[in-house]
Design a protein that fits this description.
By secondary structure, this protein is α+β, with helices and mostly antiparallel strands. The protein contains five helices and seven strands, in the order E-H-H-H-E-E-E-H-E-H-E-E. It is globular, with a radius of gyration of 15 Å.
């Protein structure tokens, strides 16, 4: 584990490049399967809409920054979708979806992901009654989500749709 510290700040315009990196990193790939490249992800509108046109009134998230060097090391964000543009974790038009929670590989296991999730959930609790996400049941992150009050309410493709009520 690293002995360095980090801080969180809200996502700003100009962070989209790192958001794309974190979106790509957040895609669950079972052992033995090839991770899609960022270019390959751009071919899937159902994935790209998690970042494209970022900055609406229902978009919010955090970037984790390594304090000594100022490098981004993780991100989490949520967006509200409507039924016509539903994400994998879509529940209803009033429930935002946690679109991405990802940490760069060198910082995994250092509580950055937990800090990001707790921060976005505090934000969600202050603004919404519920928050959702999707998670492949084989993904080890599922335990983190369950510890923070998410429970299965449906399925979308190979992933479970999880919901948390404040």
């Amino acid at each position: 584990m690293l002995n360095q510290t980090f801080e969180l700040r809200p996502i700003q315009s100009g962070d989209e490049g790192f958001m794309w990196e974190m979106l790509c990193a957040s895609v669950f790939v079972p052992d033995g399967e090839r991770r899609p490249t960022m270019d390959e992800l751009h071919a899937y509108p159902e994935i790209t809409h998690y970042v494209t046109d970022w900055g609406t009134s229902h978009d919010f998230g955090y970037i984790a920054i390594e304090t000594s060097g100022g490098q981004p090391i993780g991100a989490v964000w949520l967006r509200r979708f409507d039924a016509a543009h539903a994400g994998y974790g879509y529940v209803n038009d009033d429930t935002p979806e946690v679109c991405t929670l990802a940490v760069v590989s060198e910082w995994r296991g250092s509580r950055v992901g937990t800090a990001l999730l707790q921060s976005i959930l505090r934000y969600a609790d202050a603004h919404y009654v519920t928050v959702s996400l999707s998670c492949d049941p084989r993904n080890p992150a599922l335990r983190l989500y369950q510890r923070h009050g998410f429970h299965k309410v449906g399925e979308s493709g190979t992933s479970d749709t999880l919901l948390r009520t404040r």
